[in-house]
Amino acid sequence: MSEASATAAVQVTAAVQVTGVDKVFTAKRKPSVTALDSIDLTVAPGEFVSLIGPSGCGKSTLLRLIADLDTPSAGTLTVFGKTARQARIDQEYGIAFQQSGLLPWRTVAANIELPLELHGVNAAGRRKRSAELLALVGLGDFAESYPDQLSGGMQQRVAIARALAESPRLLLMDEPFGALDEMTRERMQTELVRITGETGAAVVFVTHSIPEAVFLSNRVVVMSPRPGRIRDILGITLPGTADRDEHLREDEAFFENVSRVRELLHGEAPVGIKGVENR
Amino acid sequence: MRTSAGTLRTVLAPVLLGVVALALWQLLVVAFDIKPFIVPGPLAIGTEFGDNIASVVAGALVTGGNALVGLVIGGVVGILFAVLAALARVVDELTAGIVAALAVVPIVALAPVLYTMFGAGAETARQLVAALAVFIPVYINTLRGLRQVRPVHRDLMHVYAASAWQTTRTVTVPGALPFIFTGLRIASSLAVISALIAEYFGGPVGGLGKSITSAASSSNYNLAWAYVLGAIIVGLVFYCVTLAIETFATRHYKPRT
User: Fold this and answer.
1) For position A270, what pLDDT does the model report?
2) Residue A269 pLDDT > 50, yes or no?
3) Which candidate, A167, A201, A220, A235, places its Cα nearest to that of A45?
4) Å from B163 to nearest chain A CA?
5) For residue A77, what is the DSSP state?
6) Is any Cβ of chain B less than 8 angstroms from the Cβ of A130?
7) Which chain B residue has its CA at the smallest distance from A99's CA?
8) Per-residue pLDDT at B90 exceeds 90
9) In terms of C-beta density within 10 A (0-12 exposed, 13-18 middle, 19 or more buried), how is residue B214 classed?
């Protein structure tokens, strides 16, 4: 599966193409840290790819490189055939972080409109788009609320709506549900499956959670730390993204995939009871 | 949500304490027959305040007006300079010395010099003294606030390829608002004090400061204290209005999102 989509992606323009990328952090009077070591990864348009691994495996660093928030030390990285920098300037992707990063002095609607406002979309156009997005994330009644009046899950939904504001073909998400409670988290995952299904955007999703990665993804990239490397890429064999709903979490195939990812993460020997730690 | 009983207590307790303190003060003045030139009783001050209310209000308007002009000028200049210093490190490095020097100069000491510069008949010198006194806390607090941009917001603006000016306008300055207001709140009291003290060194009559000195020098101690009371009220009004604007402007800032 991973082989097939990789070759398909080369023929079309890949959403993200990472080739031989290293990232070394150097600091004064400190040993340099190799955060990423010869990373190769291709994300096809419309594909949902999760990066999973223990702390320090460089998964967030890789996402930051794709977003041009940091530059690779070696190797090449393209987003829709452009350099990461050009893709950022052209607003080819939307991004959401673990913290929602909403501006507390702006209303929910004004927060969603922020990127549009910065890029010169007129007021009427902005209003229309933020109303659409608020409906998409189920917050239609909260346009004039302020972020401090919303729960953590609602704030994160606003952040996702903001990331989608310019209808990007690629969505970068850095543990967007990491700070949420379990129930909210599962609901948000289901919402995200629906939203990406509706928008058709490719997603690169960083997470700590195995079930989350399995539930959401077409492929799961398992990474190992020090130095950050890709240990394996696992195609998830589940019903298509559109059919993923709450029942899937009870499905035998779901547990099998969770176990496979867990075994990869923990090396060869599986640790703990399979399919019970459902986080 | 605070209960109405709780609100009553937070308001009532200080008021009660104040009344008790005033009563005790009056009692001591009467019991020990303390002369007005040492300290008059609150009743005498209150009576004098009531009798001369028109003149106190007129003085408060002059002194308060000077303080307000100083607060606005010093505040605006302080914020603008801080924004410049945050945008261009050169500005910060160039002005650091001057700001440090200004911060240690007792600014009212400049009043006599400024009176000769602008003429003894104008209020300009007093307004300038107030503006200078305001500039320092506003500049320092604003600059600190502008440096507190959260990493997630900085990343976001980078992602949006926002220009330095767009970032300043949409994220940096609004984010620094709590710090700007802390500066303004300190500065509001300083403005009144500076405008008042500047009157001691000359210039036109009519303000509260001049009225205090002239009443005291003509041995009218009760009247002098009535003007002091007026000055306290002006200071309180400045502080409370700034605080009210601050509370309103930063009402959505917590908790952080």
Assistant:
1) 46
2) no
3) A201
4) 9
5) E
6) no
7) B257
8) no
9) middle
The residue count of chain B comes to 257
Of the given ranges (A52-66, A229-243, B20-34, B38-52), which has the lowest mean pLDDT? A229-243
Q: Report chain A's C-alpha Rg in angstroms.
A: 19
Give the nearest partner residue to B253 out of A88, A104, A114, using CB atoms: A104
pTM for the full predicted model: 0.79
Dig out the tokens for A274 from the structure. Answer: 């399979």
> What is the spatial distance between Cα B168 and Cα B3, in angstroms, rounded to a whole number?
41
Among B155, B160, B257, whose Cβ lies nearest the Cβ of A104? B257
What is the torsional sign of CA A33, A39, A44, A48? negative
Q: Which residues of A touch B254 (CB under 8 A)?
A: 104, 148
- Closest Cα of chain B to A149: distance in Å? 8
Residues of A in contact with B158 (CB under 8 A): 68-69, 88
3-state SS class at B184: helix
Per residue in A225-244, pLDDT (tens digit) is 888 888 888 888 776 545 67
Contacts with B159 from chain A: Cβ below 8 Å: 67-69, 88, 95
Q: How far apart are CA A194 and CA A191, in angstroms?
A: 5
In this prediction, residue A59 carries a pLDDT of 87
Token pair recorded at residue A197: 């299904």
